[in-house]
Amino acid sequence: MSALSALALICTLTPSPAPSSSELMAQHILAELETHGVATESLRIVDHDVKRGVQVDMGNGDEWPAIHAKILAADILVISTPIWMGHPCSVAQQVMERLDADLSETDDDGRPVMYGKVATVAVVGNEDGAHKTIADLMQGLNDVGFSLPAQGGTYWVGEAMQTVDFKDLEKVPEPVASTNAGLARNAVHLARFLRSDKYPAK
């Protein structure tokens, strides 16, 4: 059996190469996944021309199809987003809207194409809304067909209405580090199980 692979979609509003708390959080998770032998990759959605819409390919230079191909090739998906006004940021919502197209995409056996894939969610911010943001994204991911590992969400929220971001910390707080480690461990366990025992076809 080949090594598992993971893809992190960074939903920051900040283009590269500027620092991003969402990217930093995702990198910590990917590092934990790598300790379990997982091959990892990440990309910032805002660095690509991803069109608005709910189809796999919106045409006119849409770069989502290439990103979609990476999602299909990965065993584990990590979505990392900041909180804005108590909700997932607009880029994360755009990703969910594009994934909506996969509700009608099936494999050769009639299973939704995201069956057998594991999804996790990471959230950063300095306002309330981490649990709601994780819940919103996990519900959508599950609707599309992703499987969610136990404690598959992680977050860091700073003091409300202040300016300290996750990327400003000298080190990752221990509760966040241990949560990230557990998320990675459980995601790998579930991904390996789904590789060896697929969901039943219709």
Automatic annotation (TrEMBL):
Transmembrane segments: none annotated. Residues 16-159 form the NADPH-dependent FMN reductase-like domain. Coiled coil: none annotated. InterPro entries: Flavoprotein-like_sf, FMN_Rdtase-like_dom. This is Flavodoxin.
